[in-house]
Design a protein that fits this description.
single chain; 573 residues; alpha+beta; Sulfite Reductase Hemoprotein, domain 1; Sulfite Reductase Hemoprotein, domain 2; 5-stranded antiparallel beta sheet; 31% helix; binds siroheme; binds iron/sulfur cluster
Length: 573
Amino acid sequence: MSSKSVEEIKSQSRALRGLIGETLSSDATHFADEEFQLLKFHGTYQQDDRDQRVARKQLGQDKAWMFMVRSKLPGGDLTAAQYLAHDRIAQELGNKSLRITTRQGFQIHGVLKGGLQECIRSINDSGVTTWGACGDVVRNTIAPASPINDAPHGDAQQLAKEISRTFFARTTAYAEIWLNGEKLDGTDSQPDEPIYGGQYLPRKFKIAIAIPPRNDVDVYANDLGFIAHVENGQVSGYTVVAGGGFGMTHGKQETHPALALPLGYVTRDRVIETAVAVVTVQRDFGDRSDRKHARLKYLIEDRGIEWFRRQVQSRLSFPLLPPREAKWNTVGDMLGWHEQGDGKLFCGVWIQEGRIHDAHGVNYRSAFLEISQRFGFPIRLTTNCNLIFYNIDPAQKSDVDKILTGHGLSRPADLTHVRQLAQACVGLPTCGLALAESERVFPGVLDQIDEILAEFELSNEPILIRMTGCPNGCARPYNADIAFVGRGPGKYALYVGGSITGERLVGLQQKTIALEEIPGRVRSLLEEFVRDRFAGETFSDYWGRTHVNGPAPRPEQFHIEAPRRDELVLAGE
Ligand code: SRM
Ligand code: SF4
């Protein structure tokens, strides 16, 4: 590990250049720690294949170094050509799969150092960038994916792009290193970085735009959220919420998930000014001495929402108005076929954990390739890791259906409601922070849960179940109805009591359960629900009525002691 702090690395990096260029053209197998930190801003993580760690160690070999490359897609929007470019890049330079992320991006895993520059350059050639997809900047801005032809949905997509452009870091480091100096729109090498300053933000920063009643972006999990209000069919303005974030560390009581709090209401023309004000308050006051305490949620918690509102207000040219109420009905996507409102259709395709590949007779990749090549429909990626084709002529519907079913893809109507909603993070073997399996075991867990749901006649019941391989919360477990959070190989903490609308945090139910015990524990929760619920009551409402006391859980309600070192070692790593 580098002895320098991340703050020192950033400020000494010559505007995020460091020695990335030099290491890229050297024959080094991987980047040093300082460049590892800087690479994130450029949209890539240095990883190693954790499945190979033990065998390689025994043979005295170095780790199997490789890179994850993350594309930033504001609002999850991309063209068919951009989709096809990502597919080709994943085939030629990655592990032949594309992973839709929980923030509407794409990840390509398994890129080798020798192919990294070509990978990033090719993504940019397609008109998508990886710049700022990771690192201490504003990350991909998420927005409702449904391509409904009305004012709020159109505005949310446009706003996501505006926010994205506003918060590009201005340094031309990216262009120099990856694009042979070709300028990226929105970068112009202003040495002082007008928004970020020389040290960039204290930590990652996430922004979401939501349109009630569908909270499909999980707006309260973001550092900053804009909730649309519509009057006479037009967006009149947005309620601003701030201070959400889900990362925590087992055993560190001072870390915990938080839902964003209402800050105010602004008219549409003032959204960007408000976003800049909120981001710069975090830039100036966020805790740069401890990265585990550096997110906006801790600043707001430490100083109070009133202090924070005053700070934001002092940077605005207009008064913040009182926040307005929003009512939500689900965090889920619009899957299956729907009318857009302009004579065209869209089709939301459910994807198991957002992993696009051909496997076990379900050929997502081949299906999407055929549809994109033949019809060229534009695409939206969702934060539930699904994909929507849109602008479809009704006459093309049956051909699209034939391609989907011909490649073995499930129709949403054939899936339990639980499976349509469920999500697991990437986890092993690529994630360096995973303590337990997630994406790879979750389908099997859901198979068993599906059987229990059928037994209790709950197959159409909306219950939100999420899993992550560690407490960082990348699949947003802490507002789900039921969540499993990895704490060691084959071991999970069980949390219960969030909600289908994403507005309530969970409480810790059981410190440790083994993977094999999960279906049994779910069975007992569902048994109780079926026995004691009022007619028509959802699991979220039932749990809220019977188990949740008070407005918000206290930090200690989330915590289990840190796993022992030996509990963390995966298969002899
Ligand atoms: Fe995440 C770190 C994957 C959404 C909270 N996240 C990571 C890393 C990069 C691991 C690392 O630092 O070495 C993971 C890479 C795994 C891999 O091999 O691909 C990773 N996070 C992901 C993705 C791909 C999960 C997925 O299954 O789709 C999501 C990428 C989104 C994107 O396109 O930008 C992803 N991560 C999230 C979310 C959900 C969200 O943003 O809505 C969260 C919780 C919300 C939040 O940020 O608070 C999240 N990821 C974290 C954290 C904890 C941050 C904290 O404040 O403590 C980390 C660890 C860290 O930053 O130190 C982390
Ligand atoms: Fe990795 Fe943990 Fe995020 Fe899952 S939740 S992708 S295991 S950091």
